[in-house]
């Protein structure tokens, strides 16, 4: 499995961010080809001190190639272009292969 994580610093207007994200951006996420599962939160907390991020998104793909294809797709390009409409604090995008742990 391959995961993409989007970290959102504090936006200028948190209410607009939340409303736009749920009403407009997440419907685009649902159309992202190859996306196996996804989750998000506006309740980001730090173990100590103030959290550096306002919101987080996680998306799961079969592998890095599936994520690359999703990003290159018309839906992926629309999704990326939409970020400027709500993420006034910027965005940090990371991705990585996920390895299962053993006890």
UniProtKB/TrEMBL annotation:
Pfam families: EthD
Superkingdom in the source lineage: Bacteria
Domain EthD positions: 11-88
Entry-linked PANTHER family: BLR8190 PROTEIN (PTHR40260:SF2)
Annotated protein name in UniProt: EthD family reductase
Lineage start: Bacteria, Bacillati, Actinomycetota, Actinomycetes, Mycobacteriales
